[in-house]
């Protein structure tokens, strides 16, 4: 019998993988994809919770998450393109200007 | 049957996700991510969220990932572009920290801290109306305001993307 | 008319503001006209106020102009209010009148100076402060004026601050005055503590209505502390040393501030507080003794000085001593009368000296002068009037006022006061005529180069001289014994019992053997003393010019002692200045300041800097690093949420 815990643990694994990806990769696009992975992990737990609680709210929230993800993808990729245009790189270690 | 299916699909999902984070070539990375998303869509079907599964494939695997691939190919990144690694010492702590995070999440799951309330939408009830119809009803009645706000969000994001992509303002 | 009194203060203040802010961009003539005009208008208003006061009945001659509430805190309340009464009227007339003449004189004297507008700005500010001092109706406002004249004095002594000696003299004046002001401030605080008010009217009425018996300890302390302020401002022993050095300032400044007006502030203050002083016989004795001692002491130094302005400076100190002597024996009217006549003739003498210095292109040493009589006739004539006035020859102004002081000293004080005063008068006559003879008579000792430039001063310098000479001549008639206008005018302030005449009759009543002829005998005696002094000077410097040299050789020790001003400066240096400097440098500067204050400040800065250097390592600029911190933070928060309870 597959319980909600199975799904939640799977979601946790995916999320953790996404986090590790963000932390160890240097390619901005891959990092971005890892963020998408994290969002998907959260979506999974939403849907799982909705299913096991006989609720529709989880499924509806997935839509909103997807919207945010879509917006984020559009803007984020635009930023990456803009940065690439200036720096000729998407290696975030070369873009270490986030300090005073 | 669905039990085995869950384990198989879960295994594929985790594997492709792990492949994603260790893949040098971004194009392959994107393909792995697409596979992850498709697997997730299968899991959504197992959870009787058919409409979400469809949207997952159409929006995520279709639109967003295509956008990713498009950008990767536009920028024409070669495989070796990750040459400079300023933080090599962060690799192991990061993985350890990831494991710690996973542990903590599992503890939270096991601790039953987060409890939900049973609602009226049982499987039988949903099937009697239809998943898509029910979602559509809810979106345009109870969730109308958030729904409209998301449209503004997308609108803003579209403008933002245009502004960022323009060479000269 | 009395309502106009605020205008007296307003005009100089406007002059200060205009010249101070815009003087640099205006023509010199404009600056001069504005400054003189401001004081001139002030003088005119003063006359109006005086007339307004005369229209009132003598007992009701007290007018208070309430401007605004300045400080209100708990039971402490200080108004910015002005007080017009006979005493302050005499003072404002003297200050604005003499001040106006000196302003006019300055136009000519300072004409070539590049700090022209700065000079007039300070001078106007000074006049404002002095008028504020004499017009205020409470101790705090008076203290403001008191401090402000000190500030102006500092600014003007150090007017030529490029000169090391000038800036040193300015500092000295400021620091020495600070010692006195400290006492004054403590006195004011004590007054508030005892009387719960700092208003003149309230304090004096409380004091005079018998709430305090004569010799009350608190009153004695108050009066002594106030007198300490007076010794600083009015250059009395022991705080007189700054005044001779103050001669580093421009000569009109010496005339205005360090002779005619500011230095008399102490006398004014004591006269103003006469009610308090009368309650404390001990303080009165102190005041009289210090006054007498200063009169003699400074006069003796004046005998041998060779700098024309320094002679006048010591003369000023000595004359101020007379005023304090008068106040100390309770003859406040005599003190204020002498203050006024002294303002006339001492301003005249200083301006005359300035004219001499101007004619000789800056030479101040009387050994390098001589025979200037025919070269600068106007200056000579007016200087002569001033000299006769200060020496005390009737009917010039100095005679009446000095004679009255000597008489009062004899009648109310004792024979010692009188004899000291008489000896000082002899000295005064001697050194003033010595100065006159060495400057204007005898052989010329002026060098050729200077001789070529020798010229009489322009009209705007000689006219004030003539005006002041006229005042020095007629000023004394205000106080003719027996029919003294000024006594009568001032009597509401000092109370009827301080009249000289009444004192004379009292005395006649108490001890019949003196009688009414005493004042006349005194007049004859003091005239004789003055003539003796003049005769001595004439013998030594005109008849037998080699006599001074012989005397100097004979009494070398005394001469050296006098020439070096009794080594008081050196003694003060050794006793106070140098130890203070040493303590300041060794302990306060090198120890407290460098080690403790700088050390703690720098230490804190270094600590913060060091910590920041460590913390800065966290801020790498690498996004992945920041993401790592976020993850750590998330774990921490979740752990806290789960296990924190």
UniProtKB/TrEMBL annotation, chain A:
The record, for HAMAP family, names: NDH1_NuoK
Q: Which Gene3D superfamilies match?
A: 1.10.287.3510
Q: Which organism's genome codes for this protein? A: Candidatus Brocadia carolinensis
Q: Which Pfam families match?
A: Oxidored_q2
Q: How does it assemble?
A: NDH-1 is composed of 14 different subunits. Subunits NuoA, H, J, K, L, M, N constitute the membrane sector of the complex.
Where's it found, cell-wise?
Cell membrane; Membrane
Membrane topology recorded in Swiss-Prot or TrEMBL: Multi-pass membrane protein
Give the main EC class. translocase
Record-level GO cellular component terms: NADH dehydrogenase complex; plasma membrane
Tell me yes or no: is Transferase among this UniProt entry's keywords.
Answer: no
Recorded protein name is: NADH-quinone oxidoreductase subunit K
Q: Which domain of life is it from?
A: Bacteria
Instruction: Give a GO biological-process term.
Output: ATP synthesis coupled electron transport
Q: What does this protein do?
A: NDH-1 shuttles electrons from NADH, via FMN and iron-sulfur (Fe-S) centers, to quinones in the respiratory chain. The immediate electron acceptor for the enzyme in this species is believed to be ubiquinone. Couples the redox reaction to proton translocation (for every two electrons transferred, four hydrogen ions are translocated across the cytoplasmic membrane), and thus conserves the redox energy in a proton gradient.
Record EC number: 7.1.1.-
Q: Which GO terms describe its molecular function?
A: NADH dehydrogenase (quinone) (non-electrogenic) activity; quinone binding
Give the InterPro entries listed for this entry: NADH_UbQ_OxRdtase_chain4L/K, NUOK/Mnh_C1-like
What broad class describes the main subcellular location of this protein?
A: membrane
Q: Which PANTHER family match?
A: NADH DEHYDROGENASE SUBUNIT 4L-RELATED (PTHR11434:SF21), NADH-UBIQUINONE OXIDOREDUCTASE SUBUNIT ND4L (PTHR11434)
Membrane spanning stretches: 6-24, 31-54, 60-84
Keyword field: Cell membrane, Membrane, NAD, Quinone, Translocase, Transmembrane, Transmembrane helix, Transport, Ubiquinone
Report which reactions are catalysed by this protein.
a quinone + NADH + 5 H(+)(in) = a quinol + NAD(+) + 4 H(+)(out)
Family membership, please give it: Belongs to the complex I subunit 4L family.
Automatic annotation (TrEMBL), chain B:
Regions that span the bilayer: 6-22, 29-47, 53-77, 89-110, 143-165
Which compartments does it reside in? Cell membrane
EC number(s) per UniProt?
7.1.1.-
Q: Which reaction does it catalyse?
A: a quinone + NADH + 5 H(+)(in) = a quinol + NAD(+) + 4 H(+)(out)
Q: What GO molecular functions are on record for this protein?
A: NADH dehydrogenase (ubiquinone) activity; quinone binding
Top-rank taxon of the source lineage equals: Bacteria
| Keyword annotations | Cell membrane, Membrane, NAD, Quinone, Transmembrane, Transmembrane helix
A GO cellular component annotation here is:
plasma membrane
Q: What is the similarity comment for this entry?
A: Belongs to the complex I subunit 6 family.
Purpose of the protein: NDH-1 shuttles electrons from NADH, via FMN and iron-sulfur (Fe-S) centers, to quinones in the respiratory chain. Couples the redox reaction to proton translocation (for every two electrons transferred, four hydrogen ions are translocated across the cytoplasmic membrane), and thus conserves the redox energy in a proton gradient.
Q: What is this protein called?
A: NADH-quinone oxidoreductase subunit J
Query: What organism is this sequence from?
Result: Candidatus Brocadia carolinensis
TrEMBL record, chain C:
- What residue stretches are annotated with the NADH-Ubiquinone oxidoreductase (complex I) chain 5 N-terminal domain? 70-120
Could you tell me where this protein is found in the cell?
Endomembrane system; Membrane
What GO molecular function terms would the record report?
Answer: NADH dehydrogenase (ubiquinone) activity; NADH dehydrogenase activity
Q: Which Pfam families does the entry mention?
A: Proton_antipo_M, Proton_antipo_N
Which InterPro entries did the record assign?
A: NADHpl_OxRdtase_5_subgr, ND/Mrp_TM, NU5C-like, Proton_antipo_N
Principal place where this protein is found? membrane
Q: Which UniProt keywords apply?
A: Membrane, Transmembrane, Transmembrane helix
One GO cellular component term:
membrane
Gene3D superfamilies cross-referenced by the UniProt entry: 1.20.5.2700
Recorded source organism is Candidatus Brocadia carolinensis
Q: How does it sit in the membrane?
A: Multi-pass membrane protein
Stretches assigned to the NADH:quinone oxidoreductase/Mrp antiporter transmembrane domain: 136-428
Q: Which residues cross the membrane?
A: 30-55, 90-107, 119-135, 141-161, 173-195, 215-232, 253-271, 277-299, 311-337, 343-361, 382-400, 415-441, 462-486, 517-541, 626-644
Name of this protein: NADH-quinone oxidoreductase subunit L
